[in-house]
Design brief:
heterodimer; A: mainly alpha; B: mainly alpha; 2 helices; elongated
Chain lengths: 290, 66
Amino acid sequence: MTFPQALFMGLLQGATELFPVSSLGHSVIIPSLLHWRFKQSDPTFVPFLVLLHLGTAGALLVLYRKQWIAIIRGFFTAAVRGRITTEPERLAMLLLTGTIPAGILGVFLENRIKSLFASPYVAAGFLVINGFLLLGFELLRRRAERHASLDSKSRAEQEESFATAERISFRAAAVIGACQALAFLPGISRSGVTIGGGLLAGLRHQEAARFSFLLATPVILAAGLVEVPQLLATGVPLGEYVVAALLSGLAAYASARFLLRYFRSGRLDPYGWYCVPAGAVSLVLLTLRV
Amino acid sequence: MRGRLAFGLVILAVAFVVIAGLYYEGVLQIAVSDPHAAHHTTHAILFAVLAVASLIAANFAREKTV
């Protein structure tokens, strides 16, 4: 991988990790469309991915630094006391509940699923499915809004009728966490399924995005930190990869800020309408070997 | 009833600690990607986290005096 390619991949990973359009899918499909041949068996490839993920997790930690301090403090207070009394304490326990199924499924299934489906054709197919999933989540949300007689109200009023992240049930948090396993399929977006799960659990769009980003941070960070020793292997162009990771972090930070603002009144549909044709066109281009 | 649940969760935590140790020492090879690795650190960390989560759940489940 050349330095410009590494920078491009860093930018792509950071920008698509938090948008509900599948970073893994894009990082499989786009290099194939550009006829870039990365050897995933190359000993420097895993350290590269590790650094990109650490960049993304770092961006999320910076973005939510005050919340994370409150969550960590709340976690220890509630864990020792054995009782939840404040919202940060509840959020901390909800995140723990959501992280456990994600961690179990990640450790036992991630590598197997990724190695089974790591083909650009499969990724393009799943990108189409991801688009339909996003559209389906919004369809169900609109139905919930109609049931609550919210269709005549403004978007801001509609959103205010739904809950904040701290108010969802522990069962819903566990289900949203488990949904993250779907993202091991290249083309299915982690943030897409968790935001969608949050919407089904009755969260506001912005709160579903916040819960999704908070839930992703420990998993991405832990997965990256476990692989850190690989960075010290010989032949790893650490300086170049660090620059790519910084770019990935910057892109992730900017996209998170954008999405949190967008989801004040925005919906998942535009991303669904992007994924369906993007996946279909990629599938055609890959098949025709253009 | 709550006391019994809390006790069960403590037992579960102990079981998770043992499993974490066995994975770390490479004794357990269930569902690992590289059976020849000396340590299965990721699996060990997962079960250590599960042990901590079980202890927290036990603390929530125990009968409170206040």
